[in-house]
Amino acid sequence: MAPKMLTTTIPCRGGLNQSSNVQELLTKPGEAISLVNFECSRTGGYRRISGYDFLDEEVIPGTGSVEGIRSYQGIVAVRDGNVYHSEDGTYWLQVNKDVTNGDETALLAAAVIPRARGRVMSSEFIVGTTKYILSVNGVDAPNILSIIGTERSNFTYRYREIIESGSLVGAKYCVVAKGQFIIGGMTGDPTSIYYSSHASTDLISPEDDDKEIPQENFNGATSGFISFGDIVTGVAIHREQVYVFCQQSIFKVTGLDTGEAQSIPVTRDIGCVDGFTVQEVGGDLLFLAPDGIRTIAKTDRLADLELGVISRKVHLSIGRFLAPQGEFQFYSTVVREKNQYRIWAINEGNADNTQRGVIAAYTYDDTKGTFDWAFSTMEGLGVTCVDNSYHEGRERIIHGNQAGRACVQETGDTFGGTRINYTYQSPYTDFGDIGIRKNFHKVSVISRPEGSVEMGLDLRYDYENIDVHQPLTYPIVPMQQPAIYGDPLVTYNDPNIFYGVANIPDTDIYTEGSGFTVSFRVRSLGLIDDASFDIQSLQIDLTSGGKI
Question: Omega into 505 within 30° of 0, i.e. cis?
């Protein structure tokens, strides 16, 4: 009697899992043991991440990496320590000049205020109707920039450094809360934060009469400093609370606007590795601690307990960033529309400057009826600074790179013209009985492409045992984006979409080989610039070969 054909489906859900042992993973076939340049899709499954395009063909002046970037009246970027502004990326104007409300002509003629190279953190604030940017770079005094106007022909610039308090030199972290500047990580006082005056009537120095921005004042009655006895590694605002992160502790700070500031410990047993990893997502603050990615809510509630760590599933990827500490520089952002937290780490001393990152997505698991964090990894973006803002009513994520370019994420099918390598690999599964050999006849990849895609499928048997036949890569026939009426991803008459294509194509691959366990790997073939696509599930046809 011919063996009965069995059909089973593996839904792609749960994200990257590096914490379960081999036996546990046998029962979690929908998760992944490799998930590179994928994200956990809001519609279920795993989606190959979008690429990035250059803002324009013009390179930001200077040499080396872009040290800071921000959406502000176009783009403000820092390279070689110098601050540049561009309305559209086609012309970069140096603005770290000795000017007060001067136009472009005045700016070109003004003397440069020298700045050193350093990783830039910035925070925006508004006085009246004017928006300002407060920035620090870990070397120089803090600075403030304003750009007033609607276009290049009528822009006026104001740039100045906060030099009235020498204690602020070398600040690494800054934030603006309730009209006050909060600055930390200074070279000469790394265990303290300094905060500015709160009210315009609180100015006591003679030169304060000429100040355009009262918040610059650090010598008024409601200004001051707080020492924490631990090296400050970041400051952040969450739900109108000021949080100060240190190497081995975290504090809330209250009363800054009353002149009676005090610090309240959140925990004295766990700290933050780098303030550039602190982001607000999912109604909570996320940050990189020495034991992984944590949320401030759980850390506050559970103190130093490991239960506050959300990144246990990707401890291997995160662990590479943490040992030894100080080897990596970190950058992070949120993708609000996707409820994502993205963190990158780069070793500037590494010969190939390899950069890797992790995506944490706060997703709904309908099998459990709860929200949880799901993870994947990134390679190849080359982020050296990043900013998230709303531009023309839409979320825009921009980053600078090592080549001095300004880039716009979440657009295009390549990383600035370089093909995106991607890999998804399922855990090894035994389909219920590890003692039975299975013969695999067909695998159907249920996916949804957003353009032309040519990918490959590998079947890896018995943990890639060299004594077991491992088939060559099966190329998956080219897929095209279907034309779906009303779909925001579809543009009418776009030559890249195809009428008559199924909404969710079912690509059948007839396979060979057998094994007690099998893992499925989808990867880039590198033949074309693959568009993004979802992998929703895998459907497998197999027969039992009996116990051997």
Answer: no
